[in-house]
C-alpha cells in the first residue's frame, strides 16, 4: 500500500516490524518514517535485552511521545521493564498510546507492560499523577527519566520574559518536580532508585541565542550533582545524559536543511548527527547494574562535540 495512504496508526505500527519486514513492506520509506519520528530503532534484536536485572522494574519517562524520550521508553520496554510513557498534549497522545499498545498486546493475559499518561511536568499535581500511575498500575517505581524539554531561538537582548519563564519551567522546574517525586518514593520505601536527567552539551558549552536553554541545562547538571551527593548513602543514583546534536523533532527543521546540517556535522569530531539509539543505549546502561558505582556524572553522548573541536589539529 502506498505510504501516503497509510493511517497514522499503520505508519507507527510499521515501526513494530523487524527492519527486514519493514523493508519488504515499505521499502526505503520505512527508514524515512522512523527518522521522522526521531525513532531510529536499528538496534539489532540480539543486543537487547542486555541487562536482565532490569526485567520487571518500573520506569517513568517524561516527554516520551517523541524523540529521545520515546527511544528511551522503547529501549526500557525491550529490556523487559514496565514503563509509564508520559505525553504532554493531544498532539502526541497517539504516539504514546500506540507504543504502549504494541507492548501490551504481547504481554501475558491481563498484564500491562506500559501505560500512556498525560501530564505537564511543570505542574506538581500532574507529576504526582505519573508517580501514582507507576504505583497503581505496576506496584513499584525504580527509575525516573526527566527528559521533557524545549528550546526556541531568541537573540538574548530580545528574549521575552514569557519565553524565559517557559524554558525555566519545563526544562528546570520539571526536572526538580520529577526528581523530587521519585526521591520521595525511593527514600520512603528504601528503593535503590535511579534518576536520569537529560541535560545537553550545553550544560558546559555556551549557546548564543539559546541563552535560556543553556542556563537550564547547566542548572540541571548542578542540581543533579547536588542530589546525587545528598542521596548516595542510600544507594540512590542520579546522573545526567548530556547529548550533542541528535536527530529528533526538536531540531528537525534545522537538520532538514542540508547547509545547516553540514554546519553542525562540521562541529562534531565523529562527523555525524547522533541517533536516538545512541542515547537510548546510554540510558539503559545508566540504570543497569553495570553502572552501579556511577552517580553525579554527566555522560556526554555527543560524538566528541564537547571536546573543543577547533583544537582538533593541535592548533592553539
Ligand atoms: P522532542 O521535542 O522530541 O522531545 C521533547 C518532549 O518534551 C516532547 O515530546 C514534548 O511534548 C515534551 N514536553 C515539552 N513540554 C512538556 C511539558 N510541559 N510536560 C511534559 N512534556 C513536555 O526533542 P528531544 O530531542 O527528544 O528532547 C528530549 C530532551 O533531550 C530535551 O530535554 C532536550 O533538551 C534534550 N536534548 C536533546 C538534544 C537533541 O539534539 N535532540 C541534545 C541535547 C539535549
Ligand atoms: C539541542 C540541539 C542542538 C545540540 C547541539 C542540544 O541541546 O537540543 O538542538 O543541535 O544541543 O548544539
Which features would summarize this protein structure in a list?
316 residues; alpha/beta; 2 domains; 7-stranded parallel beta sheet; 11 helices; 44% helix; disordered N terminus; binds 1,4-dihydronicotinamide adenine dinucleotide; binds beta-D-glucopyranose
Provide a descriptive summary of the structure in words.
Helices cover 44% and strands 11% of the residues. It is of the alpha/beta class. It has 2 domains: 1-36, no CATH class; 47-311, 3-Layer(aba) Sandwich (Rossmann fold). Strands 3-2-1-4-5-6-7 form a 7-stranded parallel β-sheet, sandwiched between helices. It starts with 7 loop residues before the first helix and ends in a 15-residue tail after the last strand. Bound molecules: 1,4-dihydronicotinamide adenine dinucleotide and beta-D-glucopyranose (BGC). Residues 38, 62-63, 65-69, 88, 92, 120-122, 147-150, 170, 198, 200, 243, 245-246, 248-251 line the site of 1,4-dihydronicotinamide adenine dinucleotide.
Describe the protein's topology.
Elements: H1 8-13, H2 19-26, H3 29-36, E1 58-61, H4 67-78, E2 82-87, H5 93-106, E3 114-118, H6 124-138, E4 143-146, H7 161-189, E5 194-198, H8 211-231, E6 237-243, H9 252-256, H10 258-265, H11 276-287, E7 298-301
Parallel strand pairs: 1-2, 1-4, 2-3, 4-5, 5-6, 6-7
Helix pairs in contact: 4-11, 6-7, 7-8
